């Protein structure tokens, strides 16, 4: 298995969003030596997308809570 694929797999498994982004930015399709590696990279990419979507939802919920808190505090500041 090549280094990029190993690193990407580890980043996905450990939910390391920054490392996933770094590896995607450095992606080069010619690094795969077999069809199986390419298919594994595609599957890991799908998993990474799912992780990012989940994180996006969590952050959206937190942002909504912060906006409600800010609105409440502003309305009760006087």
Describe the structure.
This protein has 78 residues and is mainly α. The protein has one domain. Helices cover 78% and strands 0% of the residues. Helix 1 (3-13) runs antiparallel to helix 2 and helix 1 runs parallel beside helix 3. The protein starts with a helix and ends with a helix.
Characteristics of this structure?
78% helix, mainly alpha, 78 residues, 3 helices
Report the helical percentage.
Answer: over 70%
Tertiary shape: rod-shaped
Please work out how many helical segments DSSP would assign: 3
What's the domain count? Answer: 1
> Structural class given helices, strands, pairing?
mainly alpha
- Residue stretches low in confidence (pLDDT < 50, at least 5 long) are none
Q: What is the arithmetic mean of pLDDT?
A: 93
Largest sheet: none
Q: Work out the strand percent.
A: under 5%
Separation, N- and C-terminal Cα atoms: 63 Å
Order of helices and strands: HHH
- How many strands in all? 0
- Cα-atom radius of gyration: 19 Å
Question: TL;DR?
Answer:
This protein has 78 residues and is an all-alpha fold. The protein is built from 3 helices and no strands.
Spell out the blueprint of helices and strands.
Layout: H1 3-13, H2 17-25, H3 35-75
Helix pairs in contact: 1-2, 1-3
């Amino acid at each position: 298995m090549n280094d990029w694929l190993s690193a990407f797999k580890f980043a996905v498994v450990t939910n390391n969003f920054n490392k996933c982004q770094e590896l995607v930015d450095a992606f080069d399709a010619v690094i795969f030596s077999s069809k199986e590696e390419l298919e594994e990279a595609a599957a890991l990419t799908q998993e990474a997308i799912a992780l990012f979507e989940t994180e996006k939802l969590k952050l959206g919920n937190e942002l909504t809570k912060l906006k409600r808190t800010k609105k409440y505090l502003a309305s009760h500041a006087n």
